């Protein structure tokens, strides 16, 4: 039976100090713990503990370093959310445009062009919920004008309400002989339908972590993007091994590759590099960053000044 009772902030700080974490008066620990919960910060001090059972910290572990890790991770999520937004909007645009022309504006309700009917039912259910919650005028006006039409609003209205997760599922679930599926992959520089679905899936998962303010630093990520053997655009030479795909770096590379297509004049590299400069105590290995990653052709494109 669980018997622990809630601690006051003063008790929380005392416990951390008893376990070996250095908490200085200048750290303003009471302020931080009154705004950031103990267990949210625990994800950042966990690697600092030498005894994970008794939660004893390694010598020299500091509360200030915990806050630096937390702030680095927060700024990293903000950066990635901005990058992913551009990829998401581009994917939405391409799905709406190409599939609506290849079929019709209600292609996303056409079970004949999808591989898995049960998966499509789940996706359509999610889309229906999102449309039902929508406060956008164009959705309200469509429902008012076409209340006798049992279909969803057309793709250019419905999919504007749809999450990246649902969009990536729609794309991945398309049958492989659908012409638009390869067209979209080629426009993103991923050659054909074989690779892009896994990229979108991993990016969607990371987007959800960002949206829910979940920790990215030192996190084991699910999903393994399938890598092209000879990408048509700038890529990396020092490719992580498959067991390193749990770290963020390879996913960052996929984002950068797609972003270079969507927004060629982007500043992803200097913004990411700037975070490591701003927080010099951050261990890049916790994100799986390769040595001299910023010198790779992928991260050098475009020539940023």
Automatic annotation (TrEMBL):
It holds the Pfam family Abi_2. InterPro entries: Abi_system_AbiD/AbiF (IPR017034), Abi_system_AbiD/AbiF-like (IPR011664). This is Abi family protein.
